[in-house]
Structure prediction request, 317 residues.
Amino acid sequence: IKEKNVFTIDQNRLLGKGSFGKIYAGYNKTTGEEVAIKLESVNADQPQLIAEYKIYKYLQHGFGIPKVYECSKNKKYIILIMELLGESLEKKLNKCNRKFSLLTVLMIGEQLVTRLEFIHSKNYLHRDIKPDNFLVGRGNKSSIIYAIDFGLAKKYKDSKTGLHIPYRDGKNLTGTARYASINTHLGMEQSRRDDIEAVGYMLLYFLKGSLPWQGMVLKDPKKKYDKIKQLKYDIKLDDLCAGQPVELIKFIQYARDMKFEDKPDYNYLRSLLRKAATNNGLNFDPSKFDWIIKEEQEKENEIKEEKDENINKINDK
Prediction:
């Protein structure tokens, strides 16, 4: 990266890749601070990185929003340099045997509602709510969940006039079908309600490990999306949330009942999650996230194994 020659990429540490390009780990040569470096080809069909950088800059200083340092360009790539975070919620789920505990899910939900409250307060919709787009912090920030990937984000309100975008229909699905709201499937313009409904499905996914409309093998994406839409539309919320706290049904139903321009009652949504915890004898405690407990246990096991190994060496002598 030649623009300012401050940040260096580590080609051996690929963090992820997708339609946008690739993300590598790197570091600041002056301070030694580790960073994430996102690369997008200058020849990309639908370039997103410069627009995404502008949104990150606009959202800076929001709690749970990663820092961005610069966006530059060379002959091959648009380069976005940002704060290096930990693993995504999807990766954490995989490490926790594909299910999170109820307490972890409720605490995740509270943070996600708060992240959306901030993003919405800045007149933006996220529009791609999924576990891969929420990362935990590193080190002592491993209980903080960060919202990332604003490549599909969209302004829903004019900052100067305060006017909401007009209702439209006949739109193609934007986002991830698994978590998309029913209205998004029906081709309606997205608004704040759709981000909230998507969070509801994601929380259910974390509790159950999967959703009923997962795993369909259809080569035609349109047929697949239509099938997912039909399943979401047909299944009763009571059946979808069977065995889960009633507050989760209320959470999703609340989002579905909202009108296009309605502002979500974020306090009410958080109170539902807190009530579900209280009713199940649980107390919110950021040190009790499943991945934190698991990592602490792994460290304890490593220490114990090392001690046992040393004892065996002494005994052998």
Q: What stands out?
A: The longest strand covers residues 7-18. The two ends are 54 Å apart (CA to CA). The chain has ten helices and nine strands. Strands lie at 7-18, 21-28, 34-41, 68-73, 77-83, 124-125, 134-136, 145-147, 154-155.
